[in-house]
Amino acid sequence: MIALPRQPMPIQRSWFRTAGWALTGIILLGLAAFMGQLGNYLMAGVFGLFALLSSIGIGFGSYVTACPVCGKQLRGLFGLKRCSQCLSYGKVSEGQYHELAPDFLTKVPLLALPLGDRREMPPLCCACGAAAARTERLRIIRLEFAFDLDVPHCAFHTGGADLASETIAGKGKAQAPVLQVKSYAFYLACVKANYPSLAILHHFSNDSIAQSLLARHKS
Ligand SMILES: [Zn+2]
Ligand SMILES: [Zn+2]
């Protein structure tokens, strides 16, 4: 398999999804009007609010694209989007879908890596992607699992990561642990360390991380 440099992907409106969101909005508006008639203004307000949210669905949720890393079809392009197949993150900007740049940082730990049994941490700061100097211990306790994890940080940052859980797609209410971090460079290094089968897909990201760190040192 040849890894190609990342190109932004065009996004396309799915008319099926647009119609779905529009129908949802109309039904919610109808319910809001019905509740209003009954004098239940609280419920009318709640349904009205959801009708408003479904208009955001018409805006962003109706677009589909292909993952720039692995080619899987992606839907519901709200904010930051994780590909379920290769775990890369991307977002829509200027009408195209891009994988996040390796030096991309979030203000709060948002980039969520599903954790398997293997929980190897790369020697990078989870808040900024620079070399790590120490670790911070995080703990998660849930019905299904409980563990501690030492997450690397540089000397300047604290609180660059959180442990949380998310529902596993297609498994009802089953929860799986995720590590949420701020730095996409750290996130990608984690993907490579913990999912060797995906490492080849992220080959080019490795080079671009090195380049962007080099550029940072020069400036
Ligand atoms: Zn992908
Ligand atoms: Zn840092």
Describe this structure as you would to a colleague.
It is a single chain. The strands form 4 sheets. This protein has a 4-stranded antiparallel beta sheet, with no helix packed on it. The protein is globular, with a radius of gyration of 20 Å. The protein has 2 domains: 9-99, no CATH class; 111-218, no CATH class. 27% of the residues are buried. It has helices at residues 15-38, 41-61, 184-194, 196-199, 203-218, and strands at 9-10, 12-13, 63-66, 73-75, 81-82, 89-93, 96-99, 111-114, 134-141, 146-153, 161-167, 175-181. It starts with 8 loop residues before the first strand and ends with a helix. Helix 1 (15-38) runs antiparallel to helix 2 (41-61). Helices cover 35% and strands 26% of the residues. Bound molecules: zinc ion (2 copies). One zinc ion binds at residues 67, 69-70, 72, 83, 85-86, 88.
Kindly summarize this structure in a few lines.
This protein is of the alpha+beta class and about 220 residues long. The protein contains five helices and twelve strands. The site of one zinc ion has 8 residues, from loops.
